[in-house]
Amino acid sequence: MSVLKTTILSAVVTSLFGSCGIQAAEMLKTVGAGEGQLDIVAWPGYIERGESDKAYDWVTGFEQETGCKVSVKTAATSDEMVSLMSKGGYDLVTASGDASLRLIVGKRVQPINTALIPNWKNLDPRLVNGPWYVVNKQTYGTPYQWGPNVLLYNTNVFKTPPVSWDVVFKEQNLPDGKSNKGRVQAYDGPIYIADAALYLKSTKPELGIKNPYELTEAQYKAVLDVLREQHALIHRYWHDATVQMSDVKNEGVAASSSWGYMVNGLQTDKQPVASTIPKEGATGWADTTMLHADAKHPNCAYKWMDWSLQPKVQGDVAAWFGSLPAVPAACKASELLGAEGCNTNGFDQFDKIAFWTTPQAEGGKFVPYSRWTQDYIAIMGGR
What pLDDT band is residue 261 in, cutting at 50, 70 and 90? Predict the structure, then answer.
């Protein structure tokens, strides 16, 4: 998405949060025959049909059972997802918390009737009524996966796991004796401001940061100072998972915020990488499969939302992506995930994660998302 489009979108969203009530679209009363087609906007690796690895396929069975042919458009950032859903032509989106509220307030998605989703009963109680997808007692979608934004590191550089995010925020020599300058990455998205805020919440408690998504002007200024200092260290602001894996493999990147998906991919490729959650904690994402307000294939969409909450499907997705299932039973239902997969991926870390959500002004008390977008674009540009 272009800088101009991102800035305009954020300004519109902030205006909506401040001035619009949320009107619920009429929900489906029954699920009928499938329409034969289903169009999904998803994160890379979320909708697999065995093309990357024949063992990972949770699409073919769905298509055979329902007759709904699945088409997937991958998106690299939440802003891209919001843009695609705003243009229309898709039925579902696997939205993270920094996109879901924008989609709800922008009326791009509609409430769902959970009574039409038998597998809803399988949900992790910790995800039920999450504020990133339940608004005004209306449920906008089905939880899909969740996880932390981990600190990926090169095990040849770090013989023991780094204990603090300062390895990516402050200039220093890494354990191999070389500077971290040009060897670390940061996420290419305004929501990354929350990562720096979480870091300062721990390292500078005098700032009084309680919620990394609710920053006063003084707190916000301090966070931006950290990010401007970090700019001189950055090898690349990443948003493409494949590019980041290539950078770690070929460009000497030693540490970065990342996802389990990239860690898994690099380890499968026999690269010397591991991941950790440092002492300051981590931001994270809880993704929701949301139904477009004008979905052309609602019956297929409901069938998919129900299918996606099967324990084996949830476990297989978690195994491939390096994430956590929205269904606890998945931890024992997937041979691909294995008996220890949920523990390895951080199933018990839920309470330590500051989940992505769209920053709101709250009557002027906090800096709104439009400012986050404008300022982060400037920081990435060296300003």
Answer: confident
Q: How many other C-beta atoms are found inside a 10 Å radius of the C-beta of residue 382?
A: 9
With tokens 């324990």, the residue in question is: 311
Q: What is the pTM of this model?
A: 0.85
Contacts of 293 (CB under 8 A, 6+ apart): 25, 107, 108, 109, 110
pLDDT tens, residue by residue, 26-46: 788 999 999 999 999 999 999
pLDDT at 24 over 60: no
Q: What is the pLDDT of residue 132?
A: 92
